[in-house]
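Hey team,

Filing this mostly as a record. A colleague (T.K.) asked me to run one chain through the structure pipeline before their review meeting, and I want the input and output archived in the tracker in case anyone asks later how it was produced. No errors, nothing strange. Just documentation.

Input sequence:
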Amino acid sequence: MTQEKVPALTRLNRSASAPALHRQIYRTLRDAVLEGRLAPGSRIPSSRTLAATLGVSRPTVVSALDQLAAEGFVETRIGSGTYVAQGLAQSAAHPTDAAPLRANVLSHRAQEIIGLSPLTFSRVQQSKAFHTGFPALDEFPMREWTEAAASAWRALSAVELDYPDPLGYRPLREAIAEHLAIVRGVKADPEQVMIVAGSQQALGLVAQAVADPGDEAWVEDPGYPGARRAFTAAGLAVRPIPVDAEGIDLAYAQSRHPQARLVHVTPSHQYPLGVKMSLARRLALVAWAEKRGTWILEDDYDSEFRYAGRPLAPLHAMVDSGRVIHVGTFSKVLFAGMRLGYMVVPPGLVEAFRTLRGFHDRGSPVLLQAALSMFMREGRYQKHIRHMRSLYVERRDTLLEMLAAEMGDLLQVVPPDAGLHLVARLPQGISDLDLASSAMDLGVHARPLSQMAELPQLGGALVLGFAGVTPEEMSEGARALRRAFEHMAGGRAKMAEV
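Output structure:
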C-alpha cells in the first residue's frame, strides 16, 4: 500500500455514536482486501505512518492491524513490515469467480411451507380483537407465578442445572401425569410424558418419528394450519379431510386415502369449527388405525375450557390402544410465550422420542419447567383454570351480545360450549377473505375460515377469538367489523335488507 492510497482511510466518523476509530480502520482495510482493492502481497504502511496520516493515536492503529492479523487478512514480516496475506489470492479477493447461485435459494420444501397460511408472530401495537388462540394475559396471575418460580429455582440442585433429560423435568412430568389422570382420565406413567416446546414441536416430532417422507397424513379441513405445516416440513403427503357435524369424515378419508400413516384430529373440540367427534366415529377411527397400523395424533389443545356439561373424555382415555399419541399445550391456559407443551407417548416409543428430541435441542429449559411444576404442585394451575373458565364464559356472552347489536342477523353464530373462539357464518355472496381484509384495514383481526381450508366450504365465515379480548376491545372491534361490512358492496346491500 503506497502513501497515495492512505487518504482512502481519512474519512473517519468521529461522532460519539459511530464505531470506535480502531474498528473503522479495521473495517476499511478488511473491505479493501475482500474487494481486491488491496492485492495479496501489498505492503501496509507502518502504524506510525497511518497514525500520523489519520490523526489518531498509534495504539488505535496497532489495535486495528492486530485484529486483521489475528483473522488472517495481513501478515507481519520481521524487519520488513506488514503485508496483505498471500493466501487470499484465490478466495475472497475474487468473488466474481464464484459459482452462480441457484435461481431459488430456498428448498422446494421451504417454499411450500412458506406458501401455506401465514403465521402471526406478534400482537404488539395491534388490536387484540379478535385474535384466536390467546388467553386473557391481562388476568394472568403474575404474583403467584413469580412466587412459584422463585421457590422452584431456589430448590434446584447443581445437578439439575446440567443438560436436561430430553423427555423433560421429572417433577413436571409427574405433575402432568397426575393432572391428566384427574381431569382428563388419561392414565399415563410419568415415563410416558414428554415435555415439548409447545404442541407445534410435538407435531413435528411425531411426523418424523412414525412416518417417512411421502407417507400420507390426514388433516381436518378446515383445520389447524400448524399441523399442515409440520407434516409438510417432514415431507409427508398431506391429505385434507372434510369435517361434518360428527367430526372428521372417516368414510371420505378411508375411500380416498386408505394408506394414511398418520392422522391429526381434535376430537374434543374441533379446530376451528368447534364440533365434537361422535362416539361412534371415535371408536371407528381407533379400530381402523389399529387394523391399518396408522398413528393417531390427538391434539387436545383447549380441553380445559368447556362451559356446558362435563369435559369429553379424550381418545387416549376411551380406548386401550397404543396407536394414540396424546398432545396438550400450556399456551392456551397460561401464555403462548412459555413454549411448553406435552405428549403422552406409547411405552414402546419412549426411547425413540427421547433420542429424537435430543438430536433437536436437548430439551426444554429446566428453569421454566421447574417453575411450572411448582405452579401445578401448589394448586395454582387449577385455581387459574377455574378463574379463566368463568371469565371466558362472560367474555363469550359479551361478544355474542355485541355482534348481535352491531350486525343483527347478518352473522349466524352458534354459541360455543367450549374453547376460546367462535365461528360467525356470513351471508351468501360475502367473501370472508374480503371482509377480513377490510376489517384488518380498520385494525381488527377477523380470521377467515377459508384460510384454514383446502377443500371448498359451504359459505364463508369468520373465526373470532374472545378469551384475550376485553369488553372495551370487543366493543371497538364489533363496531369496526360493522364498518368493514358496510364498506363492501355486497355488505351494503345486505345491510339494506335488514
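Quick notes for T.K.: The chain has 17 helices and 15 strands. The chain has three domains: 3-96, 115-123+140-380, 383-497.
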